[in-house]
Specification:
Shape: globular
Number of helices: 22
Strand order of the largest sheet: 1-2
Low-confidence stretches: none
Mean pLDDT: 86
Structural class: mainly alpha
Radius of gyration: 22 Å
Strand content: under 5%
CATH class: Mainly Alpha
CATH topology: Amino acid/polyamine transporter I
């Protein structure tokens, strides 16, 4: 596990070295923060720093660094490289800068910031785009935990009602009443689970694919060929989902995610000092990257090392082997979903305690992402309409239509046999597209204020290429992967020319 250990060390060094450099660009000072200056007891509430960090971490994490990292490892050890470089140079910068800009603009939400630096037209487009994304987050993160809870007791409809009732309460009540009390506990559970798995990996010390074996993955596939049958299934998967750009859409929250920019303003309204921005925003993203690395390594153990045989019963091993050789048999990566990997590994390695943590991770994490998504949507719409949010009546005016629309989206998802997969694909792409707009907005801000805009310009161009190429290469869209290099070159050229023209115009003014 040499690549894994090096990656862990690299993330910590990234926070200490590159994080300090990025912080120096913004120069946090002792000016009064929105939490102090605009305190309203509802959304602008100064909270203890450790709580703000835990809430920010759980807000941005959800199941992203777990499920995304598990599926990302199907692409092999290239996932390590993306998690480390993406987290240090793109994701953490994206989160820190969006948080700092919100702090400097009275706790402003993302569409307002985009409107200020990319223009009113872009603001209006992003307002609709962001609210739709947040509604998708709420709908996507209701159904899957409801199904898991129903498998233990009750039925899905009951749990959907319970989860939605919680969403309504958490969206409407002051942030310190529910979110400020419950989130830190779930965040601690998520971190304890990751720490337990890290110890488990060190104890087992499995032989896993390393980064320098990236071109030799066929050897690892052969390791899983049994009686002439490819039980792993990564060849067929990667034919449909080319490493570039699909890896960079699959692993989002562990590297960079546009959803985070909608969450940073929530905590920008709760920070007591600007000097806490790096530990909270940059630090939470690095912590999420550490969790993603652990789950990527667990996934590598599970699929490439044959670890799945160690955590399932002999009967299930026989069931899998009996069906895999059938004409319509499922490979390992089709047979075991990401939630199943979480449950099997946690229960197998950590016992009853681990199984409980797995349920918390698979159920509580998406639910806690959903409620803050609705809260963000309420605040974004309120900011656009200039509705104060201190009174419950004003909060209800915005929240009721929001929840009705989300319920309609959820009903469509449940009625459509492939509804969840379709919704998740749109969510995955739109999530990364949002990071593109955020990075370009920050780049324009830095350039306009004569700061080192290169730190966001490069990630902005790269993510623009990723999102555009995905539309061309993905079989869910146009399915022309062979055009990806040409699309990438064209997008880079257009982006650089546009930014150069904008800089020239700014210089003249």
């Amino acid at each position: 596990m040499i690549t894994f250990i090096i990656s862990l060390v690299a993330l910590v060094l990234g926070y200490l070295v590159y994080g300090a450099l990025v912080e120096r660009v913004m120069r946090p000072d002792d000016r009064e923060t929105p939490a102090i200056r605009l305190a309203d007891g509802v959304d602008f509430v100064a909270l203890p720093t450790w709580k703000v960090f835990m809430i920010q971490f759980l807000n941005i994490a959800g199941t992203g660094p777990i499920f995304g990292a598990i599926m990302g490892m199907w692409f092999g050890p290239a996932s390590y490289l993306w998690i480390v470089l993406g987290c240090i140079f793109a994701g953490a910068v994206h989160d820190f800068m969006s948080g700092m800009l919100s702090l400097r603009h009275d706790g402003a939400n993302l569409p307002t910031l985009i409107g200020k630096y990319l223009g009113g037209g872009t603001r209006n487009v992003m307002l609709v785009f962001t609210v739709l994304l947040l509604m998708m987050v709420g709908a996507v993160f209701v159904y899957s935990p409801a199904l898991i809870l129903a498998s233990m007791w009750g039925n899905p409809l009951l749990w959907i009602i319970v989860i939605f009732c919680y969403y309504i309460i958490a969206t409407l009540l002051p942030i310190d009443k529910i979110i400020g009390r419950v989130y830190p506990l779930f965040a601690i559970a998520l971190l304890v689970m990751a720490a337990g798995l890290f110890v488990g990996l060190l104890v087992k010390m499995p032989h896993l694919p390393e980064l320098w074996e990236l071109g030799k993955m066929d050897t690892w596939r052969q390791f899983q060929v049994i009686d002439g049958t490819d039980t792993l299934g990564i060849i067929g998967y990667m034919q449909k989902n080319p490493l570039f750009p699909c890896l960079f859409i699959t692993v989002a929250c562990g590297a960079i995610s546009g959803f985070h920019a909608t969450q940073s303003p929530l905590m920008a309204r709760c920070l007591k000092s600007e000097r806490l921005a790096r530990p909270v925003f940059y630090g939470a993203m690095i912590t999420e990257g550490l969790v993603a690395l652990i789950w990527a390594t667990v996934s590598s153990y599970f699929f490439y090392y044959g670890g799945w045989k160690e955590v399932v019963s002999p009967e299930e091993v026989n069931d899998f082997m009996a069906q895999v050789q059938l004409a319509d048999g499922k490979s390992l990566i089709q047979y075991f979903t990401a939630p199943q990997v979480v449950k099997l590994v946690c229960s197998g390695w950590l016992g009853i305690f681990g199984g409980t943590l797995a349920v918390l991770g698979v159920v509580a994490a998406p639910i806690t992402s959903g409620d803050t998504a609705f809260r963000s949507a309420r605040l974004i719409i309120a900011e656009w309409l200039h509705f104060e949010q201190k009174s419950m009546a004003r909060r209800l005016t915005i929240s009721i239509p929001l929840f009705v629309a989300s319920l309609l989206l959820l009903i469509w998802q449940m009625e459509n046999p492939d509804g969840f997969n379709v919704l998740w694909q749109y969510f995955g792409w739109s999530n990364q597209a949002l990071s593109v707009f955020t990075l370009w907005m920050i780049t324009v801000y830095l350039a306009r204020n004569h700061k080192a805009y290169i730190i966001t310009l490069i990630p902005a161009v790269f993510m623009t290429v990723v999102c555009t190429s995905f539309l061309v290469a993905s079989p869910q869209a146009f399915g022309h992967a062979e055009l990806t290099p040409w699309v990438a070159l064209a997008v880079i050229a257009v982006a650089v020319i546009w930014f150069a023209a904008w800089l020239k115009k700014e210089h003249r003014q």
